Amino acid sequence: MIAPTIGINDTSILSRGSFLIAEMPDCERPRERLESRGAEALSDAELLAILIRTGRTGRSALDVARDLLITFGGKLDRLADASLDELRAVPGIGPAKAIEISAAMTLAARIGPGRRLRHQRLLSPAAVALAVRDQFHGKKQEEFHVLLLDQKSRLIADRGITRGLVDKTPVHPREIFRPAIRESCSRVILVHNHPSGDPTPSTQDISATKVLRDAGELLGISVIDHLIIGAESASYPMGYLSMKEENIVFDGGN
Questions:
Q1: What's the pTM value of the predicted model, to 2 decimals?
Q2: Torsion sign across C-alpha atoms 59, 101, 41, 75
Q3: For position 11, what pLDDT does the model report?
Q4: Which end of the chain is more exposed for a tag (fewer CB within 10 A), N or C?
């Protein structure tokens, strides 16, 4: 998950007022600052301004970036979860800019967990749930991920496959196994969330898992478990369900 940092309180940005970026000294412009000082030196608003590129009449890309952050409470995780319609509702953000921002946020979200968890050994469903829980926290839509493992159960990569409606996420075997084939991976774990908080598998969850397990066998790729992430409860004190542990679909082992 992208760290929830707040760029709208950056005093150096606020002190510049609403000048157009073209009117700023070269040393103050976001692109030039990134080139001379590196991306880490820039605030969230400045980085967004580089993505936005142009503003609207009388307002700079930096002004639009600040408005964008204010709309989502100054939190990048809320911005990352925003729909295209929500992004387009911000003055100065048209369809093309909304798509570019959404794409950039999604790439950042995919990179974060993979980099943090790479090479971690996932030897139990509890270890898997602990490793992926943060990226599913607070999600209002179902997301389907595939974890690629090496022969020693070390994580090679976490690949987000689909992002669906509130109650269902369509998946297709070719989307699931394409990254495994690309990485020459022979073992995968399937993970998705239930925004309702109840990780009990639906009939569709079970049937889809059977299809994916059987497809994996044909490809020589073992689907070793399917975890559903929910919320902690009396029925699910750890906040997840492992189909492997519950002998659902995987009762015969792998």
A1: 0.57
A2: positive
A3: 39
A4: C
